[in-house]
Design a protein that fits this description.
The chain is α/β, with parallel strands linked by helices and 479 residues long. Helix content is 43%, strand content 13%. It folds into 3 domains: 50-296, 3-Layer(aba) Sandwich (Aspartate Aminotransferase, domain 2); 302-407, Aspartate Aminotransferase, domain 1, CATH 3.90.1150.10; 422-475, no CATH class. It has 16 helices and 13 strands. The strands form 3 sheets. The chain has a 7-stranded mixed beta sheet with strand order 1-7-6-5-4-2-3, with helices on both faces. A 4-stranded antiparallel beta sheet has the order 10-11-13-12, with helices on one face. The mean pLDDT is 93.
């Protein structure tokens, strides 16, 4: 692609963009159980208008655009209220859950540098079900991740193991509300109590659950305590663009005290340009997501969200009960909200084949997850408002798919890829050879992902990461 010499008309541009979208997941069908959280057409119109109203305004400088700061502060107030914080709660708008989590880890690291300078290799302790964003934050910020196991059957963090893992380098304890993989809430009260006892910070990853779980509580549903009301919790991340149904990219990092939040703020007056002050990782950024989130909360209100959450949870129960009733499938643990996963209890078929067949036969998108620790190969489902009308149809198609696969002859065991690659040099040639084995190249992807998922799952995680990084390095290029 060369830089165009002449401009194109608007209609022509839009026609090309529409053609580009031909291979994308069609979320409007309600068959995509992940990535997209759509509030419906009427609310979407509010989001679009509010977003574009602030598309050009730059949130970099709140003194030049005080309206953006006002909306951000009001959003912090609304989130603090929903998550049962007090008047001391402070927070900032971020680009997503990953940035929110990174800010919590950054604050913990910088605080330790000031108050505990003897720590040269800081560590944070997380359940092995904690989101990958913690590993990313650790890699960027030079903090070691210490993982602890989760309990069999329930998949909640083992607090005794967390206690045993604490040492002189520990700066942060982490719990999920809920964990993405299984949709279960860690014992936040116990983790926070342990953090208080050891004089450590405690972060709650409420990115996916903070808003939805709060409205479940307001509806009278049983929800374990996880929010800012829990003694010992010092920070909490919550996404607004997931179950707040706002426009991407919208998340928030909240702190119980500005005495902790101050460690995330960056300022630079050493260069000859304008003085830079960044509360979060981003500098220049559109005010669109802030305005859209503000507009969405005011459009929906508590009653609107309660209606949405009630309908979503009814559909979730339908799916969970229905999947548990399918011979050969079982829900992992006891999910606390509308995110859950299931695994196969039979050798007749694996769940990766289910995901392929559901997509090919019916256009359904459900997310495969690798077997790790005591979590078997499974399929993840994120139920949202747009999926509610399709829940019953999805369950029917899943039953039909499982019955069809059950009638097929069992496949012979494949090669031991982990053994095959032992001793091999990890280079581009090896990567190309492995991708060729499953028909995956820089230009094409196979229709069925089961063979690839089985290979990647069977390899050591560091080798899987090498392959994935190399592959994405190969497909991200000049078009």
């Amino acid at each position: 692609m060369k830089f165009p010499e002449k401009g194109m008309k608007k209609d022509e541009i839009m026609k090309v963009l529409d053609s580009y979208k031909g291979g994308d997941l069609d979320w409007r069908t309600g068959k995509v159980f992940g990535y997209i959280y759509d509030p419906g057409e009427a609310a979407r119109e509010v989001l679009n208008e509010a977003y574009t109203k602030y598309l050009t305004e730059n949130a970099l400088d709140p003194l030049s655009y005080p309206s953006i700061l006002r909306m951000e502060n009001e959003l912090v107030g609304m989130m603090a209220d929903l998550l049962r914080g007090d008047s001391n709660v402070v927070g900032n708008f971020t680009s997503g859950g990953t940035e929110s989590i990174m800010m919590a880890v950054l604050s913990a690291r910088n605080r330790a540098r000031e108050l505990r300078p003897e720590i040269k290799e800081p560590e944070m302790i997380v359940p092995f079900t904690a989101h990958a964003a913690f590993y990313k934050a650790a890699q960027y910020l030079g903090v070691k991740v210490v993982t602890i196991p989760v309990k069999d059957e329930t998949f909640v963090a083992d607090v005794d193991a967390m206690r045993a893992a604490i040492n002189e380098n520990t700066i942060l304890l982490v719990g999920s509300a809920p964990s993405y993989a299984h949709g279960v809430i860690d014992p936040i009260e116990d983790i926070a109590k342990l953090a208080q006892e050891k004089n450590l910070l405690c972060h709650v990853d409420g990115c996916v659950g903070g808003i939805h779980l709060s409205f479940q509580r307001l509806l009278g549903m049983e929800v374990p305590n996880f929010d800012l009301s829990v003694p010992g919790v010092t920070s909490l991340s919550v996404d607004l663009h997931k179950y707040g149904y706002s426009a991407k990219n919208a998340s928030m990092i909240l702190y119980k005290s500005k005495n902790v939040r101050r460690y995330q703020i960056f300022a630079c007056a050493q260069w000859p340009g304008y003085t830079v002050v960044n509360p979060t990782a981003s500098s220049s950024k559109t005010g669109g997501p802030v305005a859209a989130a503000w507009a969405m909360f005011h459009y929906m209100g508590i009653e609107g969200y309660k209606k949405v959450v009630s309908e979503v949870m009814t559909a979730t129960k339908l799916l969970i009960d229905g999947i548990n009733g399918i011979d050969g499938l079982k829900i992992n643990g006891k999910p606390n909200m509308c995110m859950f996963s299931f695994h196969s209890t039979t050798d007749s078929f694996n769940v990766y084949k289910i995901a392929d067949e559901m997509k090919i036969r019916g256009g359904w998108y459900i997310q495969p997850q690798f077997a790790r620790g005591n979590s078997k190969s499974n399929i993840h489902i994120s139920m949202s408002y747009m999926n509610v009308p399709m829940a019953a149809k999805m369950l029917d198609d899943l039953k039909e798919t499982v019955e069809s696969l059950r009638k097929e002859a069992p496949e012979p065991a494949g090669p031991d890829f982990a053994a095959m690659v032992q001793g091999m040099e990890l280079d581009d040639q090896t990567l190309t050879a492995m991708l060729d084995m499953v028909g995956m190249t820089e230009e094409t992807q196979p229709e069925r992902m089961e063979p690839i998922n089985k290979i990647l799952e069977s390899l050591p995680s560091d080798l899987t990461e090498f392959i994935l990084k190399a592959y994405f390095n190969s497909i991200s290029k000049a078009g």
